[in-house]
Amino acid sequence: MLRYGTEIEQLAIPPSRPSSSLEEGDGTLESIRLPGYDLWFTFIKTVHVVPTLLDCNNFIRALSDTLQIFRPVAGRLCRHGGDWTILLTDATIPVEIERRPSAQLQFKQPWVVQDDIAQYLHSQPAGDVTKDQPLLRMKLVLTNENTVIGVSWHHTLGDGTALIRFMQHLSQAYQGLPPLHPLPTFSKYYPSPPPAQLVENFKPMMPHLVHTYPLSQIGAQYAKMHHNLGRIDIRVNKDKLRRLRSRVLDKSPADDPADRVSTQDCLTAYIATVLDRCLDTPIRTVTNAASYRDVFAPFIDRDTLGNAIYVTRCSIESRECSPSLCEIAMALRQTLKQYRDPAFVEGWISVASLLMLSAANDDRGLFFASPPGSMSINAQAALDWHAAHFGFRGKTRFFTSGVNDRYLRVFRSNPVQSANGSWVDHGSDEMLDICFAVPSQFQVRVTEMIANEIGSPTFPDNIDITRRTCQ
């Protein structure tokens, strides 16, 4: 039995067998210079709940071994003039351990996206990571029945895929099993400075990089955007979305696989039609936080510990009426096809690097605005966050936070424990959690429309996918 108390144990975990340098080609590497597109100055914050009391000593050993493989995670971010690097210092990672009764574990069941997960994250404020601060902080909350693993991962280390691979490696190491993925690489692509005309061509596609704000104002900007919002939560079986996709493909057949809409295209298009029918301003722009890791190009390394993300921007043309679900889905697919062209990706990366480096050196932050007539997507259904299960596949839950206006977040649903103690693995059953917010005066209308349509057993046959919405 655990002995509960208010005292929190503070640990500092170093990498195992630290070396003085990281081999890179024929030479050695003691630091990694970051290209501009890696300069995301925020933390990715996640929580994993394992339904057992983990062995802390084994967890610490596994973490130490994982840090040795993912060596930049134990480094320090350094700014020197206009250059940014991660120094490979083999520094320690702070880990808090807190013991508490199971009854004090409070999650907004069963949703992946929670309102707040701060109590499960390391309590020390992140501060300025350029001032010899760790890029990873962790916290373990231990009960007799659960271990809650809170992770604060600085985005300069890498994107969600990089973090998932780190956590999966940690989970495998804890179990004494081999890694699920190839070991991370640390090579970076450094784009050449883009010509002025290329910058002007790409700027309209990346307003979040063009319109930056002083770091001291970013918090106020987001607080203003979050005012008076109502949260929308949906759980849907992917079989319904596959049937919706089949209907769309019947109306818009395509010989080229690259032209065929995906289930995510159709889901996004459906939500856009709901917003068109419920909000005062119809959706005319859809942005999507996407990955280019799987684009085949010599400058892309799918196993790199870094950021391989960009924000696609789709303009939805209309005249008197809003486009139909079919038309929106096809527009989304054609936009993504354009963005996955290697030459386009190379241009996007070069311009984004220029703008992000300039913002970082000017101490300005990126702000993802949500003007009327727009919606944003961050779909992570393809990412298996539950694979970091520490031996409890189908029983480990994953949580994060962050609900914004017309910001659609999609994750594999969490498993649920029934009253008799058995588990229902919704992830394996292909259930998806969908979360976003709308101005509070529209919350009931949006909720009821989605419940009546996508919640119906006849979906998608109960909706007209070719009908346009006229205000």
Would you give an account of this structure?
- Helix 6 (238-251) packs across helix 7 (263-278).
- The chain is α+β, with helices and mostly antiparallel strands and 471 residues long.
- The chain is globular, with a radius of gyration of 23 Å.
- The N and C termini lie far apart (63 Å).
- The chain is built from 10 helices and 24 strands.
Shape annotation: globular
Structural class, judged by helices and strands? alpha+beta
Structure annotation, total helices: 10
Largest sheet composition: 7 strands, mixed
Would you count the extended β strands for me?
A: 24
User: Percentage of helical residues?
Assistant: 25-40%
**Using only CA atoms, what is the Rg?**
23 Å
Uncertain regions spanning at least 5 consecutive residues: none
Give the integer mean of the pLDDT values.
91
Q: Between the first and last Cα atoms, what is the distance in angstroms?
A: 63 Å
Strand order of the largest sheet: 1-8-10-11-5-19-9
- Classify the beta-strand content into a percent band: 15-25%
Produce a short descriptive summary.
This protein has 471 residues and is α+β, with helices and mostly antiparallel strands. The chain contains 10 helices and 24 strands. It has a 7-stranded mixed beta sheet with strand order 1-8-10-11-5-19-9. Strands 13-23-20-18-14-15 form a 6-stranded mixed beta sheet.
Task: List the defining traits of the structure above.
471 residues, seven-stranded mixed β-sheet, six-stranded mixed β-sheet, 27% helix
List the helices and strands and how they pair.
Elements: E1 9-13, E2 22-24, E3 27-29, E4 31-33, E5 43-50, H1 56-69, E6 76-80, E7 83-87, E8 93-99, E9 113-114, E10 136-142, E11 147-154, H2 160-175, H3 196-202, H4 207-210, E12 213-214, H5 215-225, E13 229-237, H6 238-251, H7 263-278, E14 285-291, E15 309-315, E16 321-322, H8 325-339, H9 342-361, E17 364-365, E18 374-379, E19 397-401, E20 407-412, E21 416-417, E22 423-424, E23 431-439, H10 443-453, E24 469-470
Parallel strand pairs: 8-10, 9-19, 14-18, 18-20
Antiparallel strand pairs: 1-8, 2-3, 4-7, 5-11, 5-19, 6-7, 10-11, 12-17, 13-23, 14-15, 16-24, 20-23, 21-22
